[in-house]
């Protein structure tokens, strides 16, 4: 019996280590900047990305240098439409946990986002304060189409979303 328990424990320990739940991505994985084979500059403006469409290759590691030229915090988030919808709900929940007296009724205090209660650390995104720069390096695993988006409440709906094609 001891041998069976030992064998079971050993087999569990030999399983591959997976990313934390909710942090597994069909389109690739985060990578260190030193592994990047290309750097892409992305500008975040108030309700737009420049460029609005990007193409990368499957297997390519891309370092995104993201500059916020807008007046409020924005994020650069890689994912599909379903992932963005889920993330938007999480952002709304974070907004609800913020001090509503500082926000007023229905208005959004963007100053509390990147440096405050809306700060979060998902491997597929970077939140950038106005006038600041952030980076995200990603290895794209297989061909397909995803989006890059800002999921700060209301920004995606206002058009702050772009198409990212992962070519063969």
UniProtKB/TrEMBL annotation:
<feature type="domain" description="Blue (type 1) copper">
    <location>
        <begin position="40"/>
        <end position="166"/>
    </location>
</feature>
<dbReference type="InterPro" id="IPR000923">
    <property type="entry name" value="BlueCu_1"/>
</dbReference>
<keyword id="KW-0732">Signal</keyword>
<feature type="signal peptide">
    <location>
        <begin position="1"/>
        <end position="19"/>
    </location>
</feature>
<dbReference type="InterPro" id="IPR008972">
    <property type="entry name" value="Cupredoxin"/>
</dbReference>
<dbReference type="InterPro" id="IPR050845">
    <property type="entry name" value="Cu-binding_ET"/>
</dbReference>
<protein>
    <submittedName>
        <fullName>Cupredoxin family protein</fullName>
    </submittedName>
</protein>
<dbReference type="Pfam" id="PF00127">
    <property type="entry name" value="Copper-bind"/>
</dbReference>
<keyword id="KW-0479">Metal-binding</keyword>
<keyword id="KW-0186">Copper</keyword>
């Amino acid at each position: 019996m001891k041998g069976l328990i030992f064998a079971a424990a050993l087999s569990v320990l030999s399983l591959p280590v997976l990313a934390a739940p909710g942090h597994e991505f069909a389109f690739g994985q985060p990578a260190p900047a030193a592994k990047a084979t290309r750097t892409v500059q992305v500008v975040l403006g108030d309700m737009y990305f420049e460029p609005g469409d990007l193409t990368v290759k499957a297997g390519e590691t891309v370092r995104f240098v993201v500059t916020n030229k807008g007046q409020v915090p924005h994020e650069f988030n890689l994912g599909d439409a379903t992932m963005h919808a889920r993330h938007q709900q999480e952002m709304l929940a974070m907004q609800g946990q913020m001090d509503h007296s500082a926000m007023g009724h229905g208005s959004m205090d963007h100053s509390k986002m990147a440096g405050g209660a809306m700060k979060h650390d998902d491997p597929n995104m970077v939140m950038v304060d106005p006038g600041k720069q952030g980076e995200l390096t990603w290895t794209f695993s297989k061909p397909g189409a995803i989006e890059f988006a800002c999921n700060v409440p209301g920004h995606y709906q206002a058009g702050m979303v772009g198409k990212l094609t992962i070519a063969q």
